[in-house]
Structure formats: C-alpha cells, structure tokens
Amino acid sequence: MSLPRTLGELRHSPFSEEQLRSRRVKDELRDNLMAKLRQGSPIFSGIVGYDDTVVPQIINAILSRHNFILLGLRGQAKSRILRALTTLLDAQTPYIAGCEIHDNPYSPICRRCRDEVAKHGDDTPIAYLTQEARYVEKLATPDVTIADLIGDIDPIKAARGGHELGSEMTVHYGLLPRANRGIFAINELPDLAGKIQVGLFNIMQEGDVQIKGYPIRLPLDVALVFSANPEDYTARGKIITPLKDRIGSEIRTHYPASIEEGIAITTQEAWTQRDGYKLHIPKYVQEVIERIAFAAREDKKVDKRSGVSQRLPISCMENVISNAERRAIRHSEKLVVPRIGDVYAAMPAITGKLELEYEGEMKGADHVGRELIRTAIAKTYDGYFKGTDMNQIVQWFDLGGEIQLADTAAAGEALQALRGIQGLMEKLVKLNVGPKENPESQVSAAEFVLEGLHAHKRIGRNEERLFTAGEKPQKAAEKPFEREDQPFRGRRPFN
C-alpha cells in the first residue's frame, strides 16, 4: 500500500487527524513499548547484562513519560541505549514536506507551514520520517551556544526572502526545534555551560522554546534524554540543580556483573569474523582477556572515577587475534589459535584504556598492564586447575629444564619442544584438548598451563619468554654476610 502524498490523501488514511493531534512522542514511545511488553519481544537487542537492572528502570521511565538521564562511567553502552530508543517509534511519521522542524500536518507550528496549508489546502505535499531520522544527538562541549540548541536570526534568509529581520521567516532553527516530533539526546550533559543548561528549562517544563527575543513560542513535541558521568552529575560537579530537578528519572548503568556477561559483550562487539584463515578462540583466552578489565576495575593503581571501559577487552581481543593471525601467515598455518603470549603482545590495546593513579604513574602503564595480565591469568588458571597436582611439571624445571616460547614461534616447532616437558601434555584434557587435537590448539593450551604456573610463581619466565625454574626464597642462614665496609642492612650473627 502506497503512503499518502498530500494532506487530502492523509485525511482518508490510517494517519487520522485525531491520532496525530493528540498522540505526542512520549505517548508513541509508551504505546509501542507496551505492545512489545505484551508480545514478550526484547526491548533493546544487543544490550547485554542490563535485563534485570537498567532495562526495567528505562521501561518505568518511558511508561511514566519522563525525560531521563543515564549515569555511568565510560564504556557502559549509554549512547547505544539512547540510540536504541528509536525502535520504539513508529516506522513512518508524516510531516509537511520541506519543513525544517517536521511539522504535524494537522497542526503546524511554524509560520512557513501554516502559510503552505493556507495556500495549498488538501494539496499540501506530505513527506515521511523514518525512525532513525527522528533521533537527534548532540555531544555537549563547553563551546555549545544557545543558538546551536535553540536557534538564531539568519540575515541571509532575510535578504534572500525580502523579509524584515523581525519576521518569523528569518529564524534559523537549532537542534532542539529540528528534533521536533522525535528524540533529542545530549551526551555528557554536565559539560554544557551553565547558561546553556538554563536554556533547557522551558522545553523540559513548559514544552516550548523562544528564539532569541522573538515574540513567538514553539510548542515542541520532543522526548529529551541525556547521559553523564556520575562524578560530574553532582552539586560539586558541573550540573545546575534546577536542571537536575527537571529530569524525571535518573538511571545508573554499570559494567558487566560477571565474566560470562563480559565475554558475551566482547564476542558481540569485537571484529572476529575475518576473511582468510579459520579462527578458533579458546575459552580460557577469552576469560583471560575479560579478567584484565575486571582486575583493572579493582586495582588501586587505576583511577576508579574514570572507570575501565568495556572497550578494553574488545580492543584487546582484536589485537590478540591479529597477532595470532600474523603468526599464522608467517608460518603458512591454516588455523589461527590465539595464545597467552598474544595477550602480552596486545599491550597497546590495554595501556591506552587505563587512567592511572599516582602510584600507577610511578610504576608506568606497561608495568601495570603486565601485572593485570598476570592477575587475570592466575584467576583463570585456578578456574581450570585449582587442586590439580602440577609437581611433575615444576620438578622438570627445577632439574634444569627450560623452554622458550616466543609469540612468533610456529605451532609444529613449539609442540615438539613442549612434549619434552614431563606431565604437561596430560594436563591439557582439563582444557578439552587431547593428543589428537590440532598443533595450534595444543600449543596454546600448553602455554596457558605454563603461564598459569608462572603467574603463581611456581616457575620463572623472563621478558624473552624463556620459562625456567622459579626463584627459591633463600633462608636467612644462606644469605651472605654483609661486608664490614657496607652499611648494616640486616641481622648479624652473634659473636
């Protein structure tokens, strides 16, 4: 069925005058949300980990017809949620063709559209907005002006149209009027200057705006949504209290509550479907990558106020795959299987995502990154091998055994060397890797075991990835006496 193209055709279509006059954007969001709830459809597809926490609060805000704000640290899917609100809008929305503020055909609010309807009547042309076209987003920055948001005088319009500067026809509409009959989102709201925040009062409370001294009012139909960092959204921050008071619902977002949720997000967002080589990412590699972010969020050397974005494991996963891909290309291997060594090679994707406290700055981002990886390896290793007897492997190193596993080493070559370590290959069954598995998977699993032992300080490893015996703590009696010409630094034996 073709859509009506004139006002006369629109009057005899399902877009009834009564419905379009009375049904505002917040009513439309509410109606479509209620329909989804009745059908049991997912409200926001692609949003993981918020089903029992954030999503119910958003549903309540929409059902209450509230303007709302999402408060959360970086990388908590705030912008994605706001953009997903368009799925609750109607698929097609009619407006008067050529209108900058997408006027309702039955009740136009701008002078130009009122003149069009008066001139053409039922022949007034009609156009349609898609869901995406009804979403307007602005990143708040200190240089945003009232003219950007509300509008200003346009002398060029006045000159070209022969209008007086005081005419309504000379108005250049800002982002808010252009979002009429849609959703207007402001990201990082507290970064707006205080006097600009004041400019939002009218639209939030009375539902209208006034443009730079013009004696006109535009009763806009807009759903306002915002995002902000909790640190800034306080009386001590940059938000003004009257604006805070006008926002209906304040909804807190959060990072993934479990490793499984984090892995699901990273799997969804990371670029893993690549052309060329077949890829297999072991579960323990996924867990190590995800635990790096979890460890960073708990580490005292990392700034808690800044947070650790979910982009860290996503970027890290992509770098890990790329390093494994580079190795496969170099050695003409047909299967790409990431190893723990590839996680260390992905350090540039980790350090850039961390805001360090003073102690972390003193130690350096690379040092902190390596500590986080080691912590993640240790926790993941415990999940597979806690309580498993690894003494045979440790003794092999204690008796002088050593092995070097560079992240560029070919799988076949590394596997031959790993098979010489007593008791190692038998332990891989706990990782679902048997002796008939492909060499790439066997090497990856064996290296994970060695890295786990190193993370627990049972064997040693240097920066060149040479695994050796662990350092044994010396007993007090074995420590050499201090020379008489050196300052005293420990206990001396009795005479």
Structure, explained:
The protein is built from 22 helices and 14 strands. It has 495 residues and is an alpha/beta fold. The protein has 2 domains: 7-252, Rossmann fold, CATH 3.40.50; 259-469, no CATH class. The protein starts with 6 loop residues before the first helix and ends in a 26-residue tail after the last strand. Residues 476-495 have low confidence and may be disordered.
Q: Mean pLDDT, as a whole number?
A: 89
Beta-strand content bin:
5-15%
Rg, please?
31 Å
Q: Strand tally, please?
A: 14
N- and C-termini, Cα separation: 106 Å
The CATH topology of the largest domain is what?
Rossmann fold
The CATH homologous superfamily of the largest domain: P-loop containing nucleotide triphosphate hydrolases
Give unreliable regions as ranges.
Answer: 476-495
CATH class of the largest domain: Alpha Beta
CATH architecture of the largest domain: 3-Layer(aba) Sandwich
Helix content: 40-55%
* Sequence of strands across the biggest β-sheet: 4-7-8-1-9
**Broad shape:** elongated
The helix-and-strand class reads: alpha/beta
Helix count equals 22
Biggest sheet overview: 5 strands, parallel
Q: What is the number of domains? A: 2
Compile the SSE list and pairings:
Layout: H1 7-11, H2 17-22, H3 25-39, H4 54-63, E1 68-71, H5 78-84, E2 93-96, H6 111-120, E3 126-129, E4 135-139, H7 146-149, E5 151-153, H8 155-161, E6 171-173, H9 175-178, E7 182-187, H10 194-198, H11 201-205, E8 222-228, H12 241-246, E9 249-252, H13 259-269, E10 278-279, H14 283-298, H15 311-330, E11 335-336, H16 340-345, H17 348-351, H18 358-363, H19 365-385, H20 391-398, E12 403-404, H21 411-418, H22 439-455, E13 459-461, E14 466-469
Parallel strand pairs: 1-8, 1-9, 4-7, 7-8, 10-11
Antiparallel strand pairs: 2-3, 5-6, 12-14, 13-14
Helix pairs in contact: 13-14, 13-15, 14-15, 14-19, 19-22, 21-22
